Amino acid sequence: MKSNVNQETLSGLALGRSRAERLAETRALDAALRNDLKVLLVNGPELAMANSSTSANSLAYVMAQEVESVAYLGSFEGEHFAVCLDADVSAVASKHGFEWHSLRINGADLSDLDAGLATSAIALNNWHQAHTHCSLCGAATFISNSGWTRQCPQDGTEHYPRTDPAIIVAITNSEDKLLMARQAVWQPTHFSHVAGFVEPGETLEAAVVREAMEETGIKIDSVTYMGSQPWPFPSSLMLAFTATTSDNQITVDNDEIVEAYWYSRAELVAACKTGELRIPSKVSVARKLIEHWYGSELPDEWSRP
């Protein structure tokens, strides 16, 4: 198996954009800074946004005094941003008339600044909500380091937000056809690439080869790295690859993957036009890999939710 370094990685990844400086070396939130914080409200994968009738595709903020706990996100042009870590923010959002919108759906339409803040906010909030106790002794932990760690009062250990590396790979054969696969839990028209989590002690390239073989029975000949994008649903970093194969025989595992087919560009267009195939949304790196292979952007109406 050959591994290549790509000189032209994917650009414009929707959730890979960021303008704010994280200021990791000076994250301590003193009282003065806290008073000036602009705080995002998060509910799982959703963000509070301004009412669409007055300000479309714009994140909404409250002042820090309106919430209990926050995590610092960064600074941009003199403004400081944070995410609320309170377990229930519905009352605050309702008070301001905010609307809840999914980052999966709206992420590509946000500005570079908002996209970066929103991605970090959702990932960090998800971690805090799911890791309230020490994994060693079970004691309740408290927020530390301006929200970027939690600390155990019993044994003093620090706990850090987790990021799980996952590969996603666009596989093409000797005819330059693209492999598209459907997971068992997806609707019949929803197809995407082979993907999966990297296992302990495994290189990224090895994960690509293993996942392709496990899910579709395809033997990979070469692998090329294409880029990465945070995927905070809840804690992944998607590492994108392309791969080539001379092996056309597909054998799905019938566990994770129940269907997989080779598509030429004309076949992909025809299937999308009839609704037989729905491709990933434009917020995903999966969509960027398809469009990179296709050679241009594809219509939004072909996207799945």
Secondary structure elements and pairings:
Layout: E1 2-5, H1 31-35, E2 38-40, E3 42-43, E4 46-49, E5 61-63, E6 70-76, E7 79-84, H2 90-96, E8 99-102, H3 103-106, H4 112-130, E9 142-144, E10 149-151, E11 158-159, E12 164-172, E13 178-183, E14 194-197, H5 204-216, E15 222-231, E16 236-244, E17 257-263, H6 265-274, H7 285-294
Parallel strand pairs: 1-15, 2-7, 12-16
Antiparallel strand pairs: 2-5, 3-4, 4-8, 6-7, 9-10, 10-11, 12-14, 13-17, 15-16
Main sheet makeup: 5 strands, mixed
**Low-confidence segments:** none
Number of helices: 7
Sheet/helix structural class: alpha+beta
Across the major sheet, the strand order is: 1-15-16-12-14
From the alpha carbons, calculate the radius of gyration and give it in angstroms. Answer: 21 Å
Helix content, binned percent: 10-25%
The run of helices and strands is EHEEEEEEHEHHEEEEEEHEEEHH
Count the beta strands. 17
Mean pLDDT: 93
Strand percentage lies at 25-35%
Per the principal axes of the C-alpha atoms, what is the gross shape?
A: globular
How far apart, in Å, are the first and last alpha carbons?
A: 35 Å
Structure description:
The chain has helices at residues 31-35, 90-96, 103-106, 112-130, 204-216, 265-274, 285-294; strands at residues 2-5, 38-40, 42-43, 46-49, 61-63, 70-76, 79-84, 99-102, 142-144, 149-151, 158-159, 164-172, 178-183, 194-197, 222-231, 236-244, 257-263. The two termini are 35 Å apart. The chain is of the alpha+beta class and 305 residues long.
